[in-house]
Amino acid sequence: MTAPLTTLPDDLPVPIDDGAAVHLAGLSLPALALPATDGRTVQLAALPGLQVIYIYPMTGRPGVPLPEGWDAIPGARGCTPQSCAFRDHHAELAALGAGVFGLSSQNSDYQREAAERLHLPFPLLSDAGLALRDALKLPVFQADGRTLYRRLTLIAEQARIVKVFYPVFPPDRNAADVVDWLHTRRPS
Prior knowledge:
Elements: E1 33-35, E2 41-43, E3 50-55, H1 79-88, H2 90-95, E4 98-104, H3 108-117, E5 124-126, H4 131-136, E6 140-143, E7 146-149, E8 152-157, E9 160-165, H5 174-185
Parallel strand pairs: 3-4, 4-5
Antiparallel strand pairs: 1-2, 3-8, 6-7, 8-9
């Protein structure tokens, strides 16, 4: 029996840090325009202030099977719990001055359903063409014949990456880890 999408199985394999994101801190977000679930087109290079962009492989849908072997792929399972955690910490992140975006290679229609079902107070960005992967050399993996992002979180300030969380595990803890890191940056 498959665990519900909102629950993480106890025996998930832990992803290892393979160094695939070590080059990201200090880079500028590229001049890419991505469609968002709120109807906007978001220009990454023009994002103002402090922004959290959590990048995830794919959200599942209730009643639709996940790809074969999904739970055995380190870091694959947990997109819904991660999104829910960012939803639950959204007010705290906003109080810390941070905007939030989720990003995957799923199309906007698929993401819109997830954003509505999960009651996300922030938009999800669609990068169906993996343009951000190409621009920043982001880590990906193959599953079910698709190329999907490995889970990582970028914190950008004035469109420059100042912090990278990679690998992210467990995914439902990522939002709290981001909040904790942002608290360490606040002046006393």
